[in-house]
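Customer escalation, tier 2.

The customer says the design service returned an amino acid string that "doesn't look like it belongs to this structure." They asked us to rerun it and document both sides in this ticket. The original structure tokens are below, unchanged.
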């Protein structure tokens, strides 16, 4: 199981400041308010891959930690022990990623039901999945009912202008300076999936540092091709 106690392994880019909201502004503001303790509520986020779900969970944990709260990020696999869920109750914020991966597993569903049931009143729970609760394949009706009672948001892909802005934000987080021509070149030649784009930025950053050169179109050609 992937566990992120607050002070460990949070990437520098995993912050609200590096998340371009685009059409997801209301969801981002609600997640931030829950992470900060301003709104004692629970949220279910769903959407396709690389719409920023994991980034938001990590950003929420970082926000909570910076305010002196306790938080934990969990991304369970089917073979993991669901008993760990019971140990989370004392935390101020719980961030659970990809919950559809344990749908249909009786022990996991029972553990999640107990957690969701208690957190509906207390708040401080943010969950992600690839679909809304009723479409994830959970077998336990009471679990689906509790999950469906959370605030529900679908995360959408960014449009062209927002995607360009996101590339610039992630580039700055890495200390890279990209002009408009360089951003256009990158978007025309690699996947427009933000997850893959940030991977390319990491490669560009390493190449730029190794060559001791600023990022230009000739340098981009060396990394990603003509």
């Amino acid at each position: 199981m992937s566990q992120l106690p607050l002070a460990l392994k949070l990437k520098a880019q995993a912050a609200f400041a590096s998340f371009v909201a685009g059409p997801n502004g209301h969801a981002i503001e609600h997640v931030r308010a829950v992470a900060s303790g301003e709104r004692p509520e629970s949220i279910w986020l769903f959407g396709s891959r690389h719409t920023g779900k994991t980034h938001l969970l990590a950003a929420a944990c970082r926000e909570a930690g910076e305010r002196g709260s306790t938080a934990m990020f969990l991304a369970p696999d089917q073979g993991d022990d669901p008993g760990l869920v019971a140990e989370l109750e004392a935390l101020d914020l719980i961030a659970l990623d990809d919950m559809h991966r344990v749908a249909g597993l009786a022990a996991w569903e029972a553990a999640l039901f107990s957690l969701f049931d208690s957190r509906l009143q207390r708040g401080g729970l943010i969950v992600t999945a690839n679909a809304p609760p009723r479409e994830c394949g959970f077998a336990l009706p009471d679990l689906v009912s509790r999950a469906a009672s959370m605030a529900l948001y679908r995360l959408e892909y960014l449009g062209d202008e927002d995607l360009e802005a996101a590339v610039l934000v992630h580039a700055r987080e890495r200390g890279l300076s990209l002009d408009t021509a360089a951003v256009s070149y990158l978007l025309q030649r690699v996947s427009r999936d933000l997850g893959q784009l940030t991977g390319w930025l990491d490669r560009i950053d390493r190449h730029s540092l190794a060559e001791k050169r600023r990022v230009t179109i000739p340098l981009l050609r060396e990394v990603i091709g003509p």
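Tier 2 assessment: The sequence is consistent with the input. Helices lie at 25-36, 53-66, 106-122, 141-148, 160-173, 180-189, 194-211, 217-224. The longest strand covers residues 42-46. Sent an explanation to the customer and offered a walkthrough call.
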